[in-house]
Design a protein that fits this description.
Layout (H helix, E strand, L loop, with lengths): L10 E15 L5 E9 L2 E7 L3 H7 L5 E11 L3 E11 L7 H4 L7 H12 L5 H11 L4 H8 L13 H17 L7 H10 L4 H4 L11 H6 L1 H14 L6 H13 L15 H24 L21 H10 L1
Parallel strand pairs: 3-5
Antiparallel strand pairs: 1-2, 1-4, 2-3, 4-5
Length: 323
């Protein structure tokens, strides 16, 4: 049984992945253990009130656990599992593919598509910059290939950053020729590198994606700007205007000051990357929400990632009901 299939009042005996574990104190001083548990379809809170000290040894972040309890939709606290028992998940009692989400395309296919896209870049200094960052034998490429794109809202899984950055760059590549005045090479390079700061801003453990100290203290945009600027400064003869154009895309890709960009997009290329990036993130949220859609349902609950509920139509509901 998957998280999306849970029903109010249902007794559960399931294996889920521990994504977070926190001990809290109630007003009377007694301890409770608050767990964030999940699988490839969603995440749920679980509350354990008995044997907290012993449970901490079993509930290790990034490990599967067997949870017995009752699922309820609390009027104040929302959906949660009231835990009766927790134990180690016996080998063979679960399918690891049910616990971890992932992209619909293989990493190998996405890499081939990225190499094909990089081959369209004619500017020699931009080609060298991409080779230094995304060259197949570099450490930064290995991390870029495996990193998540986010902590929660979209492509929050292994290869998520590659999936997201590639889709943004492919969209920019397709549209750059449709609008006059856009420098294709600058725009595509900026699209491929716009989220490069996430290599340092997020942890790489697929079972427990979180912000690093550097991510919390500096933010992914400054980290990305600093990494690319250092590489540019090491490339002999890199044109100053081209460097400025690419770095502006990284700095402005969130689109507004309130969303974390220190500057707003002021060029055609930065504007194009921002809007395709925003579109890719929002559509990625729809992918996440559809995976968590319960059988027979067409609407999801309100989601902060898209600012509304998501509707997938009666065909999707009928298909899931039949399955």
């Amino acid at each position: 049984m998957l998280v999306r299939d849970f029903r109010d009042g249902q007794d559960l005996d399931v294996v889920l992945l521990v994504r977070a574990a926190e001990t809290r104190r109630r007003r009377d001083g007694s301890a409770i253990l608050r767990l964030a548990l999940g699988d490839r379809t969603g995440q749920i809170v679980a509350i354990a009130r008995d044997g907290v000290d012993e449970l901490q040894d079993v509930c290790r972040v990034g490990e599967p656990v067997r949870i017995a309890g009752r699922y309820e939709c609390h009027a104040r606290w929302g959906p949660q599992i009231v835990v009766r028992a927790v134990g180690e998940a016996a080998p063979g009692s679960f399918d690891v593919h049910d616990l971890f989400d992932g992209p619909p395309r293989s990493a190998r296919q996405m890499e081939a598509d990225l190499r094909e896209l990089v081959a369209t870049i004619q500017h020699p200094h931009l080609r060298e910059l991409l080779e230094r960052i995304l060259g197949e034998h570099t450490e930064s490429w290995r991390r870029y290939r495996d990193a998540p794109a986010a902590k929660y809202y979209h492509q929050a899984y292994v290869h998520g950053l590659l999936e997201h950055s590639l889709s943004v760059a492919q969209g920019v590549h397709a549209l750059a020729a449709r609008f006059p005045g856009i420098d294709h090479d600058v725009a595509v390079t900026g699209a491929l590198l716009h989220d490069i700061g996430k290599l340092e801003a997020y942890t790489s453990d697929p079972a427990c994606i979180d912000m690093t100290d550097a991510g919390r203290l500096h933010g992914e945009i400054p980290l990305g700007y600093y990494r690319i600027r250092r590489e540019i400064e090491d490339i002999s003869g890199f044109p100053a205007e081209t460097a400025q154009a690419v770095l502006h895309i990284i700095l402005s890709h969130h689109g507004s000051l309130e969303h974390g960009s220190p500057v707003v997009p002021c060029t055609r290329e930065a504007t194009l990357v921002h809007h395709i990036d925003n579109l890719g993130g929002r559509l990625g949220s729809f992918d996440r929400l559809e995976k968590g859609l319960a059988p027979g349902e067409s609407w999801t609950p309100f989601d902060r990632g898209i600012g509304s509920s998501a509707y997938f139509g009666p065909a999707v509901a009928d298909e899931r009901q039949a399955a």
